[in-house]
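Most newcomers find our protein records easier to grasp once they have seen one. Nothing more is needed to start thinking about how sequence determines fold. Here is such a record, shown just as it appears in the course material:
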Amino acid sequence: MSKLKIFTIIFIVFLLILMWLIVFGYAYRLQYSSVSFTYDMHNDMYDLINHIHKLFGDNNIEYSIAAGTMLGQARNESIIPWDDDMDSYIRSKDSATVENLLKNDPLLDYNKAGFGYQTRFKQKSRKGYLDIFIMYDEGDKLIYKGHRDKTNEWLYKSEWDLILVDFGPYKVYRIRNEKDYLDRSYGKNWEKNGKISPPHGKAKSPGSLLIDTKWSKYYTNYFRGKKLYE
């Protein structure tokens, strides 16, 4: 074997090791955050969205998963491995009914937010929460208010065409044409490019890390059952 081939092999191995060190080194740095993240948390989040799905269905409330939750569902029918919340949209005509349902549900806590509502299980041992964005009619679009950092996350009214899709162990509602929405919100490479971010509201955490989503299953398996955020 020539010296050039040996050097090339060594260089490729070096690059692979460096890539793994970057990904897992970043995850280690995230331990300085103060949010506990385990796969029990994702189980709780799945149970929460299923509870909301049944609650809304029993009361004829239309909803769609949204934002990163739709992104995870479109990629691999699950929560993004490093996500710590879920997102959904409702129509403004249903907002008063939804607030009343959340207020009177014995299993849920909720609070009002600038964009709508945030809800979680009352049981303190159950982690994760769901943001419910109220979508208002504005011309040919549906938009939400009070969340300035997500200006591209809107829908055309014609896109409010809901289908039932698999999401983890359950089924949820999602708009039929998710691709155009996700292209607007995350760029046209959302199927390939992922972004590992710190927990919500943790300004002192390290910044986001871009990865190829084909590596996410290895990242997921490595941290399964462990605390990613300490």
Q: What stands out?
A: The chain has one domain: 3-223. Residues 195 and 210 are 4 Å apart (CA to CA). Residues 3-223 form a domain with the Beta Polymerase; domain 2 fold (CATH 3.30.460).
